[in-house]
Amino acid sequence: MSIQILVDMNLSPDWVDALARHGWRSAHWSAIGNPSAPDREIMEWARSNSYVVFTHDLDFGTMLALTHASGPSVIQVRGQNILPDHMAPVVVAAITQHEPDLAAGALVVVDESKSRVRVLPL
Q1: pLDDT of 14-60, one tens digit each?
Q2: Residue 61, SS3?
Q3: In angstroms, rounded to a whole number, what is the distance separating the alpha carbons of residues 62 and 2?
Q4: Using a CB cutoff of 8 Å and minimum separation of 24, what contacts does 41-50 make?
Q5: 94: which of 12, 16, 110, 111 fits an S-S bond (Cβ 3.0–4.6 Å)?
Q6: For the chain, how far is it from start to end, CA to CA, in angstroms?
Q7: Backbone angles phi and psi of 111, in degrees to 5
Q8: Cα distance between residue 70 and residue 105, in whole Å
Q9: 106-110: strand order across its sheet
Q10: With left for phi above 0 and alpha for psi between -120 and 50, is residue 38 left, alpha or beta?
């Protein structure tokens, strides 16, 4: 079964279509909950609904580390230009490569030249 991806508020809603073109069901947080919701609420929703959080925010990885949680999985995109027209090829390659890890529980950090994976709990 393919993973489902929750796109955080700090990323463009255009990521939903970019991910869908590669077969991943995704939703932007603005279509799910309060746009000003705290990160903890977004993480809890993702965990309860079996979604992977896709974000540009370092706080999600920090939360995973501090709580030693086994989920939800988080994909962090790093870089100056994080729009899908620039980063989609790298993000898609990283998700494809690490999808089994993301399904099991992982933090995947993606930048323009590489991706790194850490299995949860951290």
Answers
A1: 999 999 999 999 999 999 999 999 999 999 999 999 999 999 999 99
A2: helix
A3: 26
A4: 42/6, 42/8, 43/69, 43/72, 45/6, 46/6, 46/72, 47/71, 47/72, 49/4, 49/6, 50/4
A5: 110
A6: 24
A7: -125, -175
A8: 6
A9: 25-28, 4-7, 51-55, 74-77, 106-110, 115-119
A10: beta
